[in-house]
Amino acid sequence: MHLQVLPLAITMVAGPQIMSAIVFVTTSRAVRVSIAFLMGVVLATAVGVLIARLLAALLGSALPVDGESPEASTLGKAIQIVLIALLVLVAVRNYLRRKTTEPPKWLGTLLSATPTTAFKTGLLVILAMPSDIVVMLTVGMNLQHHRAGYGDAVLFIAATTLLVALPLLLYLIFHKRAIIAMPRVRDWMNVHSWLVNIIVCLIFILLVATGG
Fold first, then answer.
1. Do the beta carbons of residue 5 and residue 143 sit within 8 Å?
2. Which of 14, 108, 139, 194 could be joined to 98 by an S-S link, Cβ 3.0–4.6 Å?
3. Is the four-CA dihedral 79, 54, 152, 119 of positive or negative sign?
4. What gap in Å lies between CA 203 and CA 138, rounded to an integer?
5. How many whole angstroms separate alpha carbon 51 and alpha carbon 38?
6. Could you tell me the pTM of the whole model?
7. Taking a C-beta distance cutoff of 8 angstroms, is the pair 136, 49 a contact?
8. How far is the C-alpha of 150 from the C-alpha of 138, rounded, in Å?
9. For the chain, what are the domain ranges?
10. pLDDT, tens digit, for every residue of 116-139?
């Protein structure tokens, strides 16, 4: 892939995804529910990228490629401008509503989640999040742009998986310290969810502007 894999992966998990992962390591069954959640995320990301790649292949000539026509190039730039404008509006909206923004109510229910619930959550925080759908579509279009196969997305999927797994890895490596630190991190992210959303928007604006 020619896109910057790490920033894209960060955009995938910065938000409810990493917040959920942190919540799960603060539960009484931290390892079991975290592994189930991670499995859901991996499956959702792999399937999402596959669908995005297939959609990009179906679009075919509608996507800009090397040696593209001026018309296709203009269309590509117009899409970039519209997407950046929408992301800027979302970032500004999050900033203006920062004093009234609250974390999703469902995050609080994760403290009593079962492995099955954690697995379903892993699927939903990827496949039901607009920002992640846009990222996976971007990956799919990039693969089509460079006529690359699905295998070239493995690095992106692996990077996304590793980032989501970080809370669990830290919990396993620094068990006692993690037990103390993770709830604090969870609470901070809950209070500053608006800032997390703005950071996600800015990262994605940078990716779109640079064109991968």
1. no
2. 194
3. positive
4. 14
5. 20
6. 0.75
7. yes
8. 13
9. 5-61+106-194
10. 999 999 999 999 988 788 888 888
